[in-house]
Amino acid sequence: MPVRPRATKESPKSTVFTSVSFQSCGAARRFSQGLFLLCLMGLAVIAHGATDEEMTMKGNPLLPCPDSPNCVSTIDAVESHANASYRYRKSLDDTKAVLKQIVSEFPRTVLVREEGGYLHFEVRSFLFQFVDDVEFWFDKAEKTIQFRSASRSGYYDFGVNRNRMEDLRRMLEGKL
Description:
Elements (H helix, E strand, L loop, with lengths): L11 H35 L5 H4 L15 E3 L12 E2 L4 H13 L4 E7 L2 E7 L6 E9 L4 E8 L8 H13 L4
Antiparallel strand pairs: 1-6, 2-6, 3-4, 4-5, 5-6
């Protein structure tokens, strides 16, 4: 029959062992807190939306598309993002008025910025309220409308931005 040790007062060895285990628990707690903060920072970077400074640069109001497939633009040379610009014959003011009226009729669409020959709309998705930025720049010399339509977050948009701009092209046909 095995002999069980009697209950005695703690020896100095057990005190050292107890304090070491508390120190390692503290280190584990600090490590898990650090890991948690690192994950939060990673999520913040992933969900980062474009700032106004990123959206509009002096001399070139439309930025090129990112590497993700959720953007379409007339200024992008990459085939998966590229689209033809819109041509107009009317005056700039008349063309802007027609474009603003038609784009504003899209569901969940708001004009957020208008400066000279530049228009910026925000379009929110139906279910999750993701924001797409739709920008137009009127090239007066060429009488063309350059555009960029891009999702602010995420990677893939199931062709929503390209379809939106192609639908707009059909709606503008003969009106500019």
